[in-house]
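We close this part of the discussion by returning to an individual protein. The encoding preserves chain order, so positions in sequence and tokens coincide. The sequence in question and its structure tokens are set out directly beneath this paragraph:

===
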Amino acid sequence: MPTDPKVLARELMAAYTNRQEIAVPPSAREEGLDIATAYAVDSELARLRRAAGRTTVGRKVGFANKAMWRVLKLETLVWSHMYDDTVQYSQGGVATLEVARMYSPKIEPEIVFKLKRPLNGEAEPAAVLDAVEWLAVGFEIIDCVFPDWKFQPADFVAAFGLHAALVVGEPRTVTAAMIPALVDELPRFKLRLMKNGELVEEGSGKNSLRSPALCLAELAAAIARQPGAEPLGTGELVSSGTLTASHAIAPGDTWRAEVEGIDLPALDLQVSM
């Protein structure tokens, strides 16, 4: 029997709600799971969450690295929805995140965009940025109910894209005059990820498909090619792919992302129960 998206959506929702491991990822089961069915699961999860009173507010990106596409036999990046109760905004670049509801959370520093209009096939960074209202440093918090964090891209998509939370730093409004500089800065800027005051890893804008602006363009194109997918719309947030490896987080941690080479405020996050 083929995988039923409605049945799988309820199984995954229950696992995350109850903090329970799913011993065998859907892709490893006899019936298997392909990307098209995984997006049907994501759509069903969005329907269930909307029926419960939640609102979709944007998309998060996964596998924003073309080297990974070759290994995983992907043609493009993948994505899933984010929700009004999974996105929070910092105050003055400082935020606190509770992780008691999460199973095995990790942190990823990313660039977050907010769209002021839909993207209509723009591919060049300048044209893409013309559709952006603001950008900010953010922390994408991912969570995995599969053993040892082992899964295939289809499992990733179906399991909320592993999206548990997005913490957004202080935004910087994008004006027409700024766009030429941003086109140059976004691939080049450096990011330092700190934990409890010590350097954990350094990343760069180029780690997100050579530029977060190019990642945004690829996301819009990938969504447009996916049958039945809701196109990126005005006001949506996009978390555009991690700039470092992901790192486990725990209550009591203090994380900081700071950048150089682009004018964006740092973001500090205190992790609590």
The first strand starts at residue 56 and ends at 62. The chain has a mean pLDDT of 96. The two ends are 41 Å apart (CA to CA). The helical segments are 5-18, 35-51, 66-72, 125-129, 153-158, 179-185, 212-225.
